[in-house]
Design goal:
The complex is a heterodimer of chains A (110) and B (459). Chain A is of the alpha+beta class. Chain A has a single domain, classed as Alpha-Beta Plaits. Chain A is built from 3 helices and 6 strands, in the order βββααββαβ. In chain A, the strands form 2 sheets. A 4-stranded antiparallel beta sheet of chain A has the order 2-3-5-4. A two-stranded antiparallel ribbon of chain A has the order 1-6. In chain A, 47% of the residues are buried. Chain B is of the alpha+beta class and 459 residues long. Chain B has 2 domains: 297 residues, no CATH class; 121 residues, Alpha-Beta Plaits, CATH 3.30.70.1120. In chain B, the strands form 3 sheets. Chain B has a 10-stranded mixed beta sheet, with helices on both faces. The chains are: A alpha+beta (110), B alpha+beta (459). At the A-B interface, strand 2, strand 3 and strand 5 of A face helix 9, strand 15, strand 16 and strand 17 of B.
Chain lengths: 110, 459
Amino acid sequence: MELKEVPLHAVAHARAGDKGNRGNISLMPYDPALYPVLAEQVTEARVLALFAHRGATRCVRYDLPLIHAFNFVIDDVLEGGVNGSLNLDGHGKSLSFRLLSLTVRIPDAG
Amino acid sequence: MSELFLVGNASGFSGDRIDAAPPVVRALVRSGKPAALFFECLAERTIALAQIEKRRDPEAGYEPMLERLLEPILADCARAGIPILGNFGAANPVAAARCVARLARRLGIEDLRIGVVTGDDVSGSVDLGNLAAHETDAGFDMSSWTMISANAYIGAAPLAEALSRGAQVVVAGRTSDPSLAIAPLMHHYGWAEDDWQALAAGAACGHLLECGSQVTGGVFWDPGFKDIPDPANIGFPIAEVSPDGSMVITKPWDTGGLVDLRSVKEQLLYELHDPAAYLTPDVVMDITGVTMEQLGRDRVALRGVRGHPRPDRLKVTACYEGSWLGEGEVSVAGPNTLARARATADVLLQRVQQRGLARRARADLIGVSAVHDSDDGALWRSYDGPEPPDIRIRLAVETSTRDDADQAAREVLAMLCCGTAGTSGARWRVTPRLLTRSFLVPREMVPIEVRVLEARAWN
């Protein structure tokens, strides 16, 4: 089957939260059929690389197949967290949309 | 007991929309079912700011919007037997109770029973220096910091006790957020303190509702992708909880926003790390077996939450006066914007460094890259996309003294004359920085007191 490359934002939604200097980002495909595709392509390594410029040290992905969701937990991504960061977004709540800018290759329905 | 119990939420943080409660209360009353309403008003730093207020004025230090939040609904809730719970006591729950009492007397409900839960403030009683730091906070040198506040996240049991003693309003300081929903469920269904399955269902209910509109369309809507009705009037959430721990998340029918599988999933995972072990003082919640079903418009059923025994120790978060934040912004626009913005940022950083003002400094190019960027500007420095029409340059510094922060921020002001061509729109400000650290404390070091008095008796 033909594949096309799209930003995650076209096929999935996400929300970011914080605790200290650790962030989490949930990721859910709109179509549950894409769950295995995202599971294969949105890896811990790719997500960690997306936040390498912020000094992120570790990324763990928890899979929740019953509700077709992933939870990425990223250590040291908040440059000190809400109380220590110089970033306007000390909570890192905008970071879900950096994840959604990552591209994936999905089956092209034509 | 087979009847449903309804839990409504009317605030997700201190600063939330002030008019959220009335539609929720109308829906709870109209249901005719037993119900409770809670307000979550206390973020990590809110309590430290409240502690500073309390030092200035011994009758301050609680949620400043308290009266405004409760006035439209207090009489209706009292009449309908809907208890109100909130951590709106912040650093001064007793003063908050007096505020509620004054309001009740003004509204003619002098016999309103107001409960207060105190003991979470451990700043004078626990020596944190000897305790283990929380895992995310290990390895910081805090020797030069001055502590402002230290509060334990207490659980649902004292809140439930206040309800069992007839409290119609329960005023607390630092509680764990989900406990505000667990408490009325514990009280109504008679759940034991070690009924982990039941408590975990309560924790899920609290977790889904504690951020208010975040489960009903707030921080969810994304125009063209996730549209919601009437985002100016998002309805706040209601959970219909069954005795078996399953629940339906919904919202008042006459409000904006929505409840669907997408909004509930986003909130279920919000600020959650290991989905098998979400820690609260009441129970460890495990959502790995959760399933959801859309039952109808704005109605999502959720079941399968599992519970594990609660942690032995309580989390204490302490806030410290650590340093100062200086910020300044200035704008450029039109031809050659990007080059002028980059040069402005570099000069500001150079000035701050030259004068030895800051321990740490950062520049952002708002309109190119800011919130996703790093302190060293990795993204805006490497940006090679189209030239934006308008860029705002922001300088942010961390300094040891207020004066250094002010001097650094004023470097932005000086750019009005010394900056690149067409520089304008300077704004700057200085704010004290609060640093927080968390510790784990044995439960017996945090004795909790519950008092319940009628409005006429709170003076």
